[in-house]
Amino acid sequence: MKRHLLSAADLTLEDATLVLDTATELAQLTERATVKKLPTLRGRTVVNLFFEDSTRTRTSFELAAKRLSADVINFSAKGSSVSKGETLKDTALTLEAMGSDAVVVRHSWSGAPVNLSRFIRGSVINAGDGTHEHPTQALLDAYTMRQRLGRIEGLKVTIVGDILHSRVARSNVLLLHTLGADVTLVAPPTLLPVGVDQWPCQTSYDLDAVLPKSDVVMMLRVQRERMGAAYFPSTREYARRYGLDVRRVQTLSDDAIVMHPGPMVRGMEIAPEVADGVRSTIVEQVANGVSVRMAVLYLLLGGAEPAIGSDDQ
Amino acid sequence: MSAAQARPVTGDPAAARPVLQGPEVGRVVDRMAHELLEKTRGGADVVLLGIPTRGTTLARRLAARVQAFEGVEIPTGSLDITLYRDDLRLKSPRALEETDVPADGIDGKLVILVDDVLFSGRSVRAGLDALADLGRPRAVQLAVLVDRGHRELPIRADYVGKNIPTSLQEAVHVMLTEDDGRDAVLLGPADVAR
């Protein structure tokens, strides 16, 4: 039985399309028809289990659950028993004993949500695990592309930056492949993960060569906090070779869009003029995140059994 | 669950008996449009909201007939009730249908909910809940092409195309040209899956 959303690879083309279509209708309801609260998940409890800092993802999940009338418990590792030495498993079992129907988990360990899904009865939703995956981010990115460009199949999507430490990149590559887009990863050789040649995408070291052919350019933040060693000579050199500045944006085709999952570092991977420009979807991505997460929560928790997601482990 | 969500005949088509066919459906809709004009005194302030899929189609047809008879233009929309259903927890979540409310909204209007089949009344109850979240109509009425009885809630229709006495072992299928390629109301054995 399907219960969890652990990886973007869990979603078939039908699943992913169902999530995007559901999100479209929910956005229509909450934005155009101004229904702020739907009764659908009344009486269900969603636990936000965040072992790592997050503003937009946690708030987005919280808002999504509340708009569907679910009860939300926010749990962050700071100020909890985790700081007293409790393990992930015991924390999860404690929360489950309190009657949670779904656990939205973010953890710095890759694979923590999969682990959790083995001993929890409710649904587990991966909200970002280490450098592994962040499936709902990929879904909201795909939603934003479809909204702006009208389709996903056949789009040329370029993902630029710190691929090595990016869970967003991996989830996007997997989901966009399922949805029929062509993805190219662009990064300095030191910031491409080992085994990237097995991913369903192309890679390049030369941003200027790829940009004119791109429909979507997704910039990623350089994750300094995950870097022990030097991956490039200097910030200035990185910005000059891999940053999206005004000159580079002018080489894009007319209706190409610029995306960023946030948080962004202005002046590093993206110039302020580009981040605030007409091509930028950065603010839309945040708004779309709520609709997409409502769709995921509805499809996993709304019925007797989930309509999307992965099987039991 | 309610049979209000009529779907294409899944079983043996020969097993389903036509109750209305072709132009008979059109005549019934024409009569309902006349009744609507009579009861609402010319259709002022009326908004027609159909419950997808065939309710929405019927709402558009009613509006078109009213327009043809008296030249009155009635705003028409569609109201998805999926998120308000009381049987959501009984099966896996369904895909949502379109909700499209006319730009002027429903506040102070006479809203007429339109559905193809009235059965248990549960769809209509969900529709009333959905309406309450959208605004505050002056009044709400109900128009259905077929009333097949077996109500489980205190709900009745203001405009009925045809009353069809049925047993619980039967299913009513409404087919409309826009959705199904032809107009018909069929009475057949209930789907096993239901």
Could you state the oligomeric state of the chains shown? heterodimer
Termini gap of chain A: 10 Å
Count of extended strands of chain B: 8
The helix fraction of chain B, in percent, is 25-40%
Distance between the termini of chain B: 8 Å
Helix content of chain A: 25-40%
Rg of chain B, Cα atoms, Å: 16 Å
Question: How is the largest sheet of chain B built, in terms of strand order?
Answer: 3-2-4-5-6
Q: Catalogue the unreliable spans of chain A.
A: none
Report on the architecture of this protein.
- The complex is a heterodimer of chains A (313) and B (194).
- Chain A has 11 helices and 11 strands.
- Chain A has 313 residues and is α/β, with parallel strands linked by helices.
- Chain A has 2 domains: 159 residues, Rossmann fold (3-Layer(aba) Sandwich); 148 residues, Aspartate/ornithine carbamoyltransferase (Rossmann fold), CATH 3.40.50.
- A 5-stranded parallel beta sheet of chain A has the order 8-7-6-9-10, with helices on one face. In chain A, strands 3-2-4-5 form a 4-stranded parallel beta sheet, sandwiched between helices.
- In chain A, α2 packs across α11, α5 crosses α6 and α5 crosses α11.
- In chain B, β4, α3 and β5 form a beta-alpha-beta unit.
- Chain B is α/β, with parallel strands linked by helices and 194 residues long.
- The longest helix of chain B is centred in the first third of the chain and has 17 residues.
- In chain B, the strands form 2 sheets. In chain B, strands 3-2-4-5-6 form a 5-stranded parallel beta sheet, with helices on both faces. In chain B, strands 1-8-7 form a 3-stranded antiparallel beta sheet.
- The radius of gyration of chain B is 16 Å and the shape is globular.
- In chain B, α1 crosses α2.
- Chains A and B meet through α1 of A and α3 of B.
